[in-house]
Amino acid sequence: MENITKTLDARGLSCPMPIVKLSQAMKEMKIGEIIEVVASDPSFVPDVEAWCRKTEQKLIEIKEGAEEIKAYIQKTK
């Protein structure tokens, strides 16, 4: 994925900490910027989908690997 502004390593963190860290990181970003979040908690997928819907951020893509999950989110507001 190109145009990634920031990468957040949330591996080893359990729910809800990856979302808490994501929320904090998004406050420092500008509209249009993209963050890559790397997590290992399996509940991160439904959590990040719900968080993006609730906060009206654009969830570009989720890549699920054997040991980690990557989510790409664009700040929209």
Q: What does this protein structure show overall?
A:
There is one protein chain. The protein is α+β, with helices and mostly antiparallel strands and about 80 residues long. The protein has helices at about 15-25, 45-55; strands at about 5-10, 35-40, 60-65, 70-75. Strands 1-2-4-3 form a four-stranded mixed sheet, with helices on one face. A hairpin with a 4-residue loop joins strand 3 and strand 4. The longest helix is centred in the middle third of the chain and has 12 residues, at about 45-55.
Relative helix content = 25-40%
**Quantity of strands, as a count:** 4
Derived structural class:
alpha+beta
Question: In whole angstroms, how far apart are the ends?
Answer: 21 Å
Q: Which radius of gyration do the C-alpha atoms yield?
A: 11 Å
Elements, N to C (H/E): EHEHEE
Strand content: 25-35%
The global form is globular
Average pLDDT taken over every residue:
96
Describe the biggest sheet? 4 strands, mixed
Instruction: Provide the spatial order of strands within the biggest beta sheet.
Output: 1-2-4-3
Number of helices: 2
Query: What oligomeric state best describes the polypeptide chains here?
Result: single chain
Query: Which spans have pLDDT < 50 for at least 5 consecutive residues?
Result: none
Care to give the gist of this entry?
This protein has helices at 17-27, 44-55, and strands at 4-10, 34-39, 58-64, 69-74. The chain is an alpha+beta fold and 77 residues long.
